[in-house]
């Protein structure tokens, strides 16, 4: 009986020495979970902002492709290519991107700001644009200077007749 009491007292003293170690592990796991959730939220926010930039760029390109060059269209033979007026197309791209920025609350994600046209390419029946924007990060890490992330989109379209 004395041996059992002695072993029990050793276990009891050892348990007193390790008291609180579970709370330290729990706190560490909680902090890791919060950090991971914050990181995943930031990544998802950037991905959604990129998709919104692509949608705005696609809308601008579709509007630009609808700029018919009437003189070239009526002078050409019956081909499958519908010529685009490139100067009008560029103007329509800028207008459409401006509309997206003006009506931001209705059409644009709140993370996006400052959509800009970086490159415009137009030839015959093809229009391609490169756009860029800044996406705000919802959660900033302490002592981090990273507030915005620059994202880019490249889209294009071409006009042709249906057969």
What this model shows, in words?
The chain has 163 residues and is an alpha+beta fold. The chain has one domain. It is 54% helix and 21% strand. The chain contains five helices and three strands; from the N terminus they run H-H-H-H-H-E-E-E. It has a three-stranded antiparallel sheet, covered by helices on one side. A hairpin with a 2-residue loop joins strand 1 and strand 2. The protein is rod-shaped.
Distance between the termini: 99 Å
Number of strands: 3
- In what range is the share of β-strand residues? 15-25%
Determine the oligomeric state from the structure: single chain
**Quick one: biggest sheet?**
3 strands, antiparallel
Using only CA atoms, what is the Rg?
30 Å
Strand order of the largest sheet: 1-2-3
The low-pLDDT segments are none
Number of helices: 5
List SSEs in N-to-C order.
HHHHHEEE
Number of domains: 1
> Which outline best applies?
rod-shaped
Q: Give the proportion of residues in helices.
A: 40-55%
Task: Summarize the topology.
Blueprint: H1 2-17, H2 21-65, H3 70-75, H4 86-102, H5 104-107, E1 112-123, E2 126-136, E3 148-158
Antiparallel strand pairs: 1-2, 2-3
Helix pairs in contact: 2-4
Summarize the structure.
With 163 residues, this protein is α+β, with helices and mostly antiparallel strands. It is 54% helix and 21% strand.
State the main characteristics.
163 residues; 5 helices; rod-shaped
């Amino acid at each position: 009986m004395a041996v059992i009491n002695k072993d029990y007292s050793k276990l009891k003293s050892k348990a007193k020495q390790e008291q609180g170690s579970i709370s330290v592990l729990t706190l560490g796991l909680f902090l890791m979970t919060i950090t991971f959730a914050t990181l995943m939220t930031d990544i998802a926010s950037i991905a959604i902002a990129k998709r919104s930039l692509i949608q705005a760029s696609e809308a601008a390109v579709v509007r630009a492709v609808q700029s018919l060059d009437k003189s070239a269209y009526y002078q050409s033979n019956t081909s499958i290519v519908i010529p685009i007026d490139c100067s009008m197309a560029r103007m329509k791209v800028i207008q459409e991107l401006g509309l997206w920025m003006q009506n931001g609350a209705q059409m644009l994600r709140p993370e996006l700001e400052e959509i800009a046209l970086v490159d415009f390419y137009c030839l015959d029946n093809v229009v391609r644009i490169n756009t860029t924007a800044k996406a705000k990060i919802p959660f900033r890490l302490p002592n981090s200077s990273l507030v915005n992330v620059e994202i880019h989109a490249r889209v294009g379209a071409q006009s042709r007749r249906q057969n």
